[in-house]
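fyi for ur records
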Amino acid sequence: MTSLPRYLATKLATINIAKNNCDDYQAVFAQLKAHYPSIGFQALFDLYCYLSKSPYPNREQQQQLIKEYKQQPKYYPLPSNDTVSHFLQLAQQLALQAFKEDEIPIGAIVVCNNEIIGQGYNQTRQRKDILAHAEIIALQEAQRYLGNYRLHDCVLYVTVEPCLMCSGAIINSRIKQVIFGTSEPKTGAGISQYQVFNNKQVNHHTQLIGPIDNDYYSQLITKFFRYKTM
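which gave:
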């Protein structure tokens, strides 16, 4: 299949597909299903043909594709590009505050029902506390706001891919989605050094979305470490 059927192209044009999933036919179908619950498995078969450049699946292959889909973690509709840009920019302002205070410049925001309920930036040096990462501070503030250590239906926006410690806290707090600006090749636990959000054995799945813009969101942290080595 060299081009998508019109019905499928029309639906895909109306939703925001995570860049890190755009070549994965199962992930794309799951995101379509999140927006269009009534869409049938015909769309999965067509995506399989188009993205994998394979012939149309026979009946046995169709059953296998359906089985694989049912084993996928739950996907949620993605926020609009404007929403993602808005909240990541606010997180970037927090990262800039960290930079001004000689902290590793990472900022994080927790959003629930389009309202900011927690925010933070790295303060490990000021607090002399290795736990004082942007994500941890934002999660703790959100938990206090809701009066609950579970953050169901909340989205975490963070400028840089979370580390292993923060990723564990994110999963345990039941955050719905994590949207991050740039990857962190040395310590990132989402896609770089580890892929903890892909673990299907845990009892909660947090959907990971990103990097949104590596070039832009890596500038501040690159500048910080460049100054440190001068």
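The first strand starts at residue 107 and ends at 112. thats all i got for now
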